[in-house]
Write a sequence for this structure.
């Protein structure tokens, strides 16, 4: 779960990020396992573009439906949107933005959500990534059953999510992400650099309390202080004041422009479609 102290001061200007990052967090059990029970597999519809890209739409007990995406042999679970907002066929993918989406629908920015559209009666299926629509074909029932029976189902390949973003007056960004799985949820990674060229820094989180976080090198010569009042970069004796950049309003920047996640799959249909 998102650290409570930063959710109220560094990362959040509202409840928006808690909802947005729920879309990126791994929707898995404590052991980070995914299980598509036989009863649900039998009711699952699979669509394909004919190029080894498959979208599985499975029934879900609370969201009506949920989706998985993969190559037919391995499927990744695509995290559901927050409850009482969108349908289970919607998924967060900040790399693509819809120009027509609602920026504030029940507390979430719908522009960042893409969608699988399925009409079994009309035998139509498609994926909308931002405003780009890719038509798919529904796989025959017998082939679907055999495929899903042999396939593996796994949590999202993205094992880290945004935690904090700040920058100085020269356009140098300082970005922190945090682990999302039960194995790495206490792990933080710190990156520093200009847009498109941030480099990971060998620094560890040495302080985490109600007032914020401090990341530092072993000898303390470099420190990033994420404070409720003022965030600061310290290099030897020089202190640089930093501007907080709200994560919830800058997810496209984080995933498209900083360069940290470039080329990394998110495990959603928009990886390829």
């Amino acid at each position: 779960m998102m650290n409570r102290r930063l959710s109220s001061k560094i990362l959040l200007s509202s409840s928006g990020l808690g909802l947005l990052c729920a879309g990126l967090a791994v929707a898995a059990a404590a052991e980070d396992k995914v299980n598509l029970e036989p009863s649900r597999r039998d009711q699952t519809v699979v669509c394909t573009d004919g190029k080894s890209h498959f979208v599985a739409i499975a029934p879900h007990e609370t969201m009506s439906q949920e989706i998985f995406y993969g190559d037919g042999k391995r499927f990744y679970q695509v995290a559901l949107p927050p409850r009482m907002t969108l349908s289970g066929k919607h998924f967060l993918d900040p790399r693509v933005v819809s120009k027509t989406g609602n920026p504030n629908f029940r507390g979430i920015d719908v522009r960042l959500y893409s969608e699988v559209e399925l009409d079994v009666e009309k035998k139509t299926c498609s994926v909308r990534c931002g405003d780009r629509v890719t038509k798919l074909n529904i796989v025959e029932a017998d082939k679907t059953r055999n495929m899903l029976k042999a396939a593996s189902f796994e949590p999202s390949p993205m094992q880290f999510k945004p935690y904090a973003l700040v920058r100085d007056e020269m356009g140098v960004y300082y970005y922190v992400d945090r682990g999302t799985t039960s194995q790495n949820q206490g792990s933080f990674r710190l990156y520093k650099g200009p847009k498109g060229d941030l480099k990971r820094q060998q620094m560890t989180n040495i302080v985490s309390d109600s007032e914020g976080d401090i990341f530092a090198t072993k000898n303390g010569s470099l420190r990033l202080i994420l404070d409720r009042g003022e965030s600061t970069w310290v290099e030897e004796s020089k202190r640089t004041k930093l501007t907080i950049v709200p994560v919830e309003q800058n997810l496209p920047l984080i995933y498209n422009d900083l360069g940290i996640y470039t080329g990394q799959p998110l495990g959603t249909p928009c990886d390829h479609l």
In short: Helices lie at 4-9, 16-24, 38-41, 141-150, 251-257.
